[in-house]
Amino acid sequence: MSRPTKEDLAAAHGRAIPDVIAPRLRVLFCGINPGLWSAATGHHFARPGNRFWPALHRSGFTPRQLRPDEQAELLTYGLGITNLVARGTARADELTPAELVLGGQALRDKIAANRPAWLAVVGVTAYRVAFADRTAALGEQPGKLGTTRVWVLPNPSGLNAHFTVGTLAAEFARLREAATPPRAS
Predict the structure, then answer these.
(1) Where does the chain cross the membrane (predicted)?
(2) Fewest CB within a 10 Å sphere: which of 14, 71, 118, 169?
């Protein structure tokens, strides 16, 4: 994957990237919106320093650390990625609350159409706004979207200094354990 130029990043502002989605996934991860690096490359969580891919691997969701340009391989593990808001921005705080609310409705429609077992939203503040739940905290949420259970994870952006790769991986592992069906004996 080549490094985008300053011009590439500037041109990526407002650009959407395709979802990595299929019906009946085990977990559909939902980012807030594509950063400019992701919008420029067309790959989710693509900016160097984003901890999504290392946390996903260290938590046991994938047998090795995937690169952003290998995102389609997630489907082989029953995983996928989408975003609350489609448009790329330099920072998530460029999004308006109205955009997040509209994104929450669009996400409900994706969930209804694809029926993943779990939705994992990365970013508690964005989740609170998009789903009008001021009290949401990390972890499993009390409500469902249809039959889909909902989990909120910390934002893996390098701007979220409250979490290291290790603590992110621990949060992701809690979800993996919840999303893994018990083995038949």
Answers:
(1) none
(2) 14
The residue behind tokens 């985008």 is 4
What tokens appear for 30 in the block? 């939902």
Q: What is the pLDDT along the chain (185 residues), one digit of tens a residue?
A: 578 999 999 999 999 999 999 999 999 999 999 999 999 999 999 998 889 999 999 999 999 999 999 999 999 999 999 999 999 999 888 999 999 999 999 999 999 999 999 999 999 999 999 999 999 999 999 999 999 999 999 988 766 667 889 999 999 999 999 998 777 66
Sequence-ordered list of residues with C-beta below 8 angstroms from that of 156, at least 6 positions apart, any chain: 45, 50, 51, 52, 55, 122, 163, 168
Q: Which domains does the chain have, with CATH numbers?
A: 6-179 (3.40.470.10)
Residue 174 tokens, joined: 């809690």
Residues in the chain: 185
Q: By three-state DSSP, how is residue 164 classified?
A: coil
Q: Encoding tokens for residue 77?
A: 């593990």
List, in sequence order, every residue forming a beta bridge with 121; answer none if it has no partner.
30, 152
CA distances for 78 relative to 74, 116, 118, 161, angstroms: 7, 9, 11, 29
Question: What is the reported pTM?
Answer: 0.95
d(CA 51, CA 56): 8
- Residue 71's contacts (CB-CB under 8 Å, 6 or more residues apart) are 20, 43, 44, 81
